[in-house]
Amino acid sequence: MSKVPVMEVFGPTIQGEGMVIGQKTMFVRTAGCDYSCSWCDSSFTWDGTGIDLIKQMDAEEIWAELVSHGGEGFSFVTISGGNPALLKNLSYLINLLKEKKIKIGLETQGSKWQDWFLNIDELTISPKPPSSGMETDFNALDMILGKMKATDNRNQTSLKVVVFNDEDYNYAKMVHLRYPEIPFFLQVGNEDNKTTDDQMLINELLKKYEWLINKVMADDELKDVKVLPQLHTYIWGNKRGV
Ligand SMILES: C[S@@+](CC[C@H](N)C(=O)[O-])C[C@H]1O[C@@H](n2cnc3c(N)ncnc32)[C@H](O)[C@@H]1O
Ligand SMILES: Nc1nc2[nH]cc(C(=O)O)c2c(=O)[nH]1
Ligand code: SF4
Ligand SMILES: [Mg+2]
């Protein structure tokens, strides 16, 4: 009853994205997404290609798997997907991690609310720009960010928009200007999320990072923002489970 579909458990690694970039962390990746972004680097969570990897697990089983990979060497767990916000039952894992004094990060796109968001220490909301092919439900986003704001800084919420082109950049700007008080991150988009040619990929990603930095430097409307690479791709390329 209290199970959730888990795609992979991995780590220790570093958080490669967003507000806690560089943080040593374990990952739990859930299966299933309500979106289908054209450039999704984790499409195996929802496109059927990873179906054999899905395990229905309860909180204690997930904890045992985290410990089997991470031993006593972790104090932070990041939950991603897919969209973990589809899973009401993640409350059991989140409560268990709290009991174990583990800090919790979570990645979601801002299309669905769960009451257990209030127990996440570092919540990253990543609305999707036009290049994804997805349409942002700003009513849902307003509601989610409004509820998080009411929590008196018990937890940190940030916005992270992935940018592939000028249209995405303008979308990112619009999102930031709509929610100016929320810490805002621009992230380099990885256009080639299948290649195994790491050198070529790193060269491309560095160029894209410079392009994005230059745009922000020249833009008087974007002031209090952070521009970040997807750090793990610069180290491990498109490898899964890192
Ligand atoms: C795979 S998603 C899973 C969590 C949730 N579904 C979401 O999109 O926020 C995790 C993060 O990876 C980002 N991402 C996915 N594909 C990417 C790509 N090709 N380049 C850069 N970031 C990407 C997403 O925008 C999101 O911020
Ligand atoms: N190292 C590392 N950092 C990440 N940050 C967000 C990730 C994700 O796929 O959600 C991710 C990931 O897959 N690996
Ligand atoms: S919302 Fe996240 S997991 Fe879902 S398709 Fe988009 S990037 Fe992939
Ligand atoms: Mg990823």
TrEMBL record:
Catalytic class of the enzyme: lyase
Molecular function (Gene Ontology), one example: magnesium ion binding
Pathway in which this enzyme or protein is active: Purine metabolism; 7-cyano-7-deazaguanine biosynthesis
SUPFAM superfamilies: Radical SAM enzymes
Matches recorded under Pfam families: Radical_SAM
Cofactor names: [4Fe-4S] cluster; S-adenosyl-L-methionine; Mg(2+)
Catalysis: reaction(s): 6-carboxy-5,6,7,8-tetrahydropterin + H(+) = 7-carboxy-7-carbaguanine + NH4(+)
UniProt-listed InterPro entries: 7-CO-7-deazaguanine_synth-like, Aldolase_TIM, Deazaguanine_synth, rSAM, rSAM_sf
Amino acids binding S-adenosyl-L-methionine: W39, C40, D41, G82, S126, P127, K128
Protein's UniProt keywords contain Amino-acid biosynthesis: no
Cofactor note: Binds 1 [4Fe-4S] cluster. The cluster is coordinated with 3 cysteines and an exchangeable S-adenosyl-L-methionine. Binds 1 S-adenosyl-L-methionine per subunit.
BP-aspect Gene Ontology terms: tRNA queuosine(34) biosynthetic process
Chain positions recorded as [4Fe-4S] cluster binding sites: C33, C37, C40
Keyword Protease attributed: no
Positions annotated to bind substrate: I14, Q15, G16, R29, S80
Keyword line: 4Fe-4S, Iron, Iron-sulfur, Lyase, Magnesium, Metal-binding, Queuosine biosynthesis, S-adenosyl-L-methionine
Domain Radical SAM core, first and last residues per copy: 20-238
PROSITE patterns per UniProt: RADICAL_SAM
NCBIfam families associated with the record: Bsubt_queE (TIGR03365)
Family classification: Belongs to the radical SAM superfamily. 7-carboxy-7-deazaguanine synthase family.
HAMAP family registered for this protein in UniProt: QueE (MF_00917)
Described purpose of this protein according to its UniProt entry: Catalyzes the complex heterocyclic radical-mediated conversion of 6-carboxy-5,6,7,8-tetrahydropterin (CPH4) to 7-carboxy-7-deazaguanine (CDG), a step common to the biosynthetic pathways of all 7-deazapurine-containing compounds.
Subunit structure: Homodimer.
Protein name: 7-carboxy-7-deazaguanine synthase
Gene it is expressed from: queE
